[in-house]
Amino acid sequence: DEEGHIGHGAILHGCVVQKNALVGMNAVVNDNAVIGESAIVAAMAFVKAGMIVPPRTLVAGVPAKVVRTLTDQELAWKIEGTRSYQELARRSLATMRETEALSVPEPGRKRIELPELLPLSTIKAKRS
C-alpha cells in the first residue's frame, strides 16, 4: 500500500504489505503473509507463508516472530526515511541523463549527503 518501504534485496512473494509498513533489507516475505499497517520487518527476517504481522509491530528472526510494539519515535523515523527516498527518486528523475560507465570513480566526485537523516541507532544513542 501507499507509503510502504521495501529495503534493498528484499523478496516479496505473493504477500500483502499494508500502508506505511517497512520490509528491511534482504528480508523474505512469503505467500499469503500480511505485513500490517505501520509494521516493520527487520533486515534478514524470514516471514513464513500465511503469517499475519500485527499493525505497528516489529518482527525479526528466522522464522520471524513479533518482538514488540513500535514506539512513536521509531514510526516517525520510518516515515522520514520513506520521504527521503521518495525525494531522492524525484531528484533522480529530474536530473537523469544518459552516461557511459566508468571503470573507476573520477577524482573529486560529489557524494549525495543527507545530514538530516540519521540512523535510528544514532538518534537513540544521543537520547540515552
Number of separate domains: 1
End-to-end separation in angstroms reads: 34 Å
Q: What is the CATH T-level topology?
A: UDP N-Acetylglucosamine Acyltransferase, domain 1
Order of helices and strands: EEEEEEEEEEEHH
Q: How would the global form be characterised?
A: globular
Named at the architecture level, the CATH assignment is 3 Solenoid
Radius of gyration: 17 Å
- The CATH homologous superfamily name equals Hexapeptide repeat proteins
How much strand? 15-25%
**Class inferred from helices and paired strands:** alpha/beta
Q: How confident is the prediction overall: mean pLDDT?
A: 94
How many extended strands? Answer: 11
What's the tally of helices?
A: 2
**Biggest beta-sheet profile:** 5 strands, mixed
Proportion in helices: 25-40%
Provide the low-confidence segments as ranges.
none
Side-by-side strand order of the widest sheet: 1-4-7-10-11
CATH class: Mainly Beta
Q: Can you describe this structure?
A:
It is built from 2 helices and 11 strands. The model has no long low-confidence stretch (mean pLDDT 94). The protein is α/β, with parallel strands linked by helices and 128 residues long. The strands form 3 sheets. The chain has a 5-stranded mixed sheet with strand order 1-4-7-10-11, with no helix packed on it.
Short descriptors:
about 130 residues, alpha/beta, UDP N-Acetylglucosamine Acyltransferase, domain 1, five-stranded mixed sheet, globular
Write a brief caption for the model:
This protein is α/β, with parallel strands linked by helices and 128 residues long.
